[in-house]
Amino acid sequence: MSLTTELPPGASREPIPEDADPYALFEAWMAEAVAGELNDPNAMCLATATAEGRPSARMVLLKGRDERGFVFYTNEMSRKGGELLSNQHAALLFHWKSSRRQVRVEGKVERVTAAESDAYFASRSRGSRISAVSSDQSRPLASRAAFEARVRETEAANPGEEVPRPPHWGGFRVLPERIEFWQDMPFRMHDRVLFEREGQGWRAGRLYP
To answer: Are 41 and 96 in contact (CB under 8 A)?
Structure first.
């Protein structure tokens, strides 16, 4: 038996620069993901925990990002909403299979402003707004038919294009304290760089893969 010398995709890529700005690096990787991923390059795994530390995770969509943090929207009465309100820490994981990269984000969580939530809610399709109003997210549902009936009731109550945002529906922003970049490299010599918040800047260091 001989060991293969064939290099996997990404073999010629450069190591992650430790002197990079993590937000700029994320934007560059996201741009590549948008160009290469077939579906939802902004999909991310959101991990939350109860006040007692019991974790849970689910996929959500990144809907905003800047130097303050990473924004997503949800029903605050859902399981994740309740956990975020009782334990204001969360972790995000972006996994881009086509480019063989991932980014991990950990930090505290804050609510976005009502104006930000209003603006994003208004940007959604009418059908998505109707569904958001109709859903008691994470609560037991007697049947699919019951949900469809609730949707019809909401549509009848809101015949025009305008559908008001429910007061319990809004956005959260993860304020990064740690951002870790990982990329595939030949022969499992993968590349990992961790950026940790230090004052107004970042401290960077490599990690063994």
So the answer is: yes
Q: Kindly indicate the confidence band of residue 13, based on its pLDDT and cuts at 50, 70 and 90.
A: confident
What residue has token string 């260091």? 205
Contact 194, 205 (CB under 8 A): yes
**Under CATH, to which class is 22-123+167-206 assigned?**
mainly beta
Contact 56, 79 (CB under 8 A): yes
Task: Show which residues are catalytic.
Answer: 188
Q: Whole-model pTM?
A: 0.89
pLDDT digits (tens, 9 = 90+) for 176-205: 999 999 999 999 999 999 999 999 999 999
Determine phi and psi for 114, rounding to 5 degrees: -60, -35
Nearest Cα neighbor of 121 from 165, 58, 86 is: 165
Domain ranges of the chain: 22-123+167-206
The Cα–Cα gap between 117 and 14 comes to 39
User: What does DSSP assign to residue 144?
Assistant: H
